[in-house]
Structures are given as structure tokens and as C-alpha cells.
Specification:
With 425 residues, the protein is mainly β. Helix content is 3%, strand content 67%. It has a 22-stranded antiparallel β-sheet that branches. It has a two-stranded antiparallel sheet with strand order 20-21.
Length: 425
């Protein structure tokens, strides 16, 4: 890190990690470097420039039966991502009572099977203060993406023009009311964006309710990050979501806060994954055209300065009335994550993570439908400063050594002990 903090500041970071399991080809490595530069200009404007590279290597070791003799190059999986971005923001209202926070990002993603994807992401919201109790936000948001591969060439484009009014109706009642014209690969949809918040008491307990529509962008890059053993896609579109929900959030005190939201709605064009019928090492991408969804999401955070940081998140999703496939292949119905960071002393830090989920539906090679088993993964580690710029770390992963599978036929790495060095310049 460097900079004076007033005119500019910047940071550069690089890293590498690799692990290997007991099964043939059960290994991976990931590495990369990234840099950020912030220029603080006149009239509270801030310019952010970023660039980075990421590499990820693994193998399709999940083939059946395990005694197959396959060439190594037919199993290798290699991904590369180059990203550049720029953003301009003015979070404080200027003389015209206008604030903005625009960003543009270009991603170039490749694999070792001659697949190439270029994605341009943009988001330019502008907020105009109308009065002390009202403001108007307009903008443009979306993505322009193209893929070129040995078997398919296609594009995937999304444009949104959100318009939202933010109103303070009463001292304890606020309303966000808007519409979102959208074009997903030239298909027009007008989506709502409505949320009502009511302050229940002086302890910052807020009741929420809303009806909103939004898109989840789908790219080869995002899907491969979700499931690195997928086959190249032959087409992509974006997932449209429509949610009715109620929620409750509160900053209980200066240390503790929580948020919980429950609702129902519809989703359209959802990506699903099934093993190929030959040996199962590839995951084929399916498109579920429409289903109903009920969901519950919760967050709990405890923060005590730099000494304790404890975060928890819970997600439950239930699906029904599918239009295309009878099961939600590859989608986890329940996830719970808990992460603790504890400063034992100024030069010694402890961290621990717990992750549990209920298994996803899958298709075995022989046919039919099955649900994967539930799993519990626990990690713990220490970081110790031996000099102001030098830090040692030790990490224990999958402490209980559970042999679970997030993706069918792909057991995770077992118990691992890893160590390394972090050097700050």
C-alpha cells in the first residue's frame, strides 16, 4: 500500500495457493495479482482504477469408474481472467444536490479448450436530491458479453434503466418506489422496485416489505467460478427474479446487528448442472425456464472494534412447479456459514469458519434422481506477526476430515494443514 491518503492512495497484491488430495488428479492451484488506485480530486470526486489477473488450474478427477485410463491433457482444466475497471464517484451532494457512483469493468476470460469470453459490465446511478424528504435516482446498468468457442459462438446482453423515488413519508416511515425497464437479449420486461420500511421503536428495529424484480447476470466466467468442472456452454441468458418479501433488521447496539428476510416469487432461466452420461466428469449446463421459489435469508454480525468480528449467514430456498426439469439439479437448498476473527494480542490473530449445507439433487450415470448428503466443514487458523512487514500463518481445513461432495462424483479434499508467509511492503 502507498499514497498520502489525501490526493491518492493505492495497493498492489499478489498470491498463490495450491493443494493436492489422495485421489488421482485431485488437486488445484489458484494465483493472481491485482492493483487499485484511488485519485481524490476536486469537489469531492474520486476516481478508482483497477486491474488484475487470476489463474485457476485443476483436473476433472470425478470420472467413474475410477479405474479408467484417461490422458492427463483430457482432464486438465485451466482458466484465466484479465480484468480492468474504472469508477467515478461523488458520494457527497454538490451544489446541484447530485451524487453519483459510476463503474465500468471489462473481463476477458479464457479456458484451455479454446473458449474465450469478453464481458463489459456497467452501472451508472445518479441521485438528485429534491427536498429534505425526497430524492430521485436514475441510471443505466447492464452487461454486453460475447463467447467464442470451437463448438458455439453467442452473445448475452442485458440493459436496465432503473428509475426510483426515495420518500421519507413520516419520521419512522420511508418508501422506495420505482420501475426498471429491462432488455434481456432484446426481450423487454418492466419490473417493479418497491420497498417500505417502518421504524418500530427507538432501538433501530426496522420492519421491511417489498416487491422487486432484478436480474442475475450469467457469464461463462461466473458459472465456471460456481462449478469449475462444467462443459463449455452453447448459449447463455440471464436469470430474472421476481420477489415478494418481508423482513426485519436492527442494530441492537454498537456491536450487534441482524437482518432476516423471507418471501416467495418466481425465477426465470435458471442454470442447472448434471453429470454427463458417459463417465460423469463433465457437468452439462441446463436451463430451467421457470419455477416458483420460497426463501429465507438471515445475517447476524457481532463486531467489537478490531478484537472480535463474528459473522453468520443462513440461506434456505425451496422450489416448485418447474416448467422444464423435475428437479433443481446442482442447487443447494440450505446453507449456513459462520466466521470468527479474534485478536488474541496485537501480533496474534485466530480465525475459524464453519460451513454446512444440505446436498443438491443430481442424476447418477445410471439414471434417476438422487439427493446429495449433507456436509459439515470446519476450518481454523492462526496468523502471527514476526516483524512489522512479515506475517506467518497456519491453516487447518476440513478439521473433522469429512469426505463430502458439493458436486456429484467430486469429493472434496480431506483434512489439510497449510502454512505460508504474508509480506507487506
Amino acid at each position: 500500500s502507498f499514497g498520502d491518503g489525501e490526493k491518492y492512495n493505492a495497493n498492489v497484491e499478489a498470491g498463490y495457493v495450491g493443494s493436492k488430495g489422495n485421489l488421482p488428479y485431485q488437486q488445484y492451484s489458484q494465483y493472481g495479482a491485482k492493483g487499485n488506485l484511488w485519485l481524490h480530486m476536486k469537489e469531492n470526486n474520486s476516481l478508482h482504477i483497477s486491474a488484475g489477473y487470476k489463474g485457476f488450474n485443476t483436473y476433472r478427477y470425478g470420472y467413474e469408474p475410477k479405474n479408467l485410463s484417461l490422458p492427463e491433457d483430457s482432464l486438465a482444466v485451466k482458466y484465466n481472467l484479465v480484468s480492468v475497471g474504472i469508477g467515478l464517484s461523488n458520494p457527497m451532494n454538490g451544489p446541484a444536490d447530485v451524487s453519483y457512483n459510476g463503474s465500468l469493468k471489462l473481463d476477458y476470460f479464457t479456458d484451455n479448450r479454446s473458449g474465450q469470453e469478453t464481458s463489459f459490465h456497467f452501472n451508472v446511478p445518479v441521485e438528485k436530491k429534491i427536498s429534505d424528504n425526497a430524492s430521485l435516482t436514475v441510471g443505466i446498468k447492464g452487461m454486453v458479453s460475447s463467447f467464442h468457442g470451437p463448438l458455439a459462438d453467442f452473445s448475452n446482453n442485458l440493459f436496465l434503466l432503473p428509475v426510483t423515488a426515495n420518500l421519507q413519508l413520516k419520521e419512522n416511515l420511508t418508501l422506495k418506489a420505482g420501475i426498471i425497464p429491462s432488455w434481456n437479449n432484446k426481450t423487454f420486461k418492466l419490473m417493479p422496485d418497491v420497498e417500505l420500511e417502518y421504524l418500530l421503536n427507538e432501538k433501530n428495529m426496522v420492519l421491511q416489505g417489498g416487491f422487486t424484480g432484478y436480474y442475475t447476470e450469467q457469464t461463462y466466467h461466473s458459472l465456471a467460478a460456481y462449478n469449475p468442472w462444467m462443459a463449455q456452454p452453447d448459449s447463455l441468458t440471464n436469470t430474472r427474479n421476481s420477489d415478494f418479501y418481508v423482513g426485519l433488521k436492527s442494530n441492537v447496539n454498537q456491536n450487534l446487528s441482524y437482518r432476516i428476510k423471507a418471501g416467495f416469487g418466481k425465477q426465470y432461466n435458471i442454470p442447472l448442472f448434471i453429470n454427463d452420461a458417459k463417465d460423469g466428469r463433465y457437468f452439462l449446463l441446463l436451463n430451467e425456464s421457470e419455477w416458483n421459489r420460497v426463501f429465507v435469508a438471515g445475517e447476524l454480525t457481532y463486531q467489537q472494534g478490531e478484537k472480535i468480528n463474528w459473522t453468520n449467514s443462513l440461506t434456505f430456498n425451496g422450489y416448485g412447479q418447474q416448467k422444464t426439469y423435475d428437479k433443481s439439479y446442482g442447487i443447494l437448498p440450505f446453507e449456513l456459514r459462520s466466521s470468527l476473527r479474534f485478536l488474541i494480542r496485537k501480533d496474534l490473530r485466530f480465525k475459524a469458519d464453519v460451513y454446512t449445507f444440505n446436498g443438491a439433487m443430481y442424476r447418477p450415470i445410471g439414471g434417476g434422481n438422487k439427493r446429495g448428503e449433507s456436509a459439515l466443514d470446519m476450518n481454523a487458523g492462526l496468523e502471527f506477526d514476526i516483524q512489522p512487514k512479515l506475517r506467518l500463518w497456519l491453516q487447518f481445513n476440513n478439521i473433522i476430515n469429512q469426505d463430502y461432495q458439493r458436486w456429484n462424483q467430486y469429493p472434496v479434499l480431506g483434512f489439510q494443514a497449510l502454512g505460508g508467509i504474508i509480506f507487506h511492503m
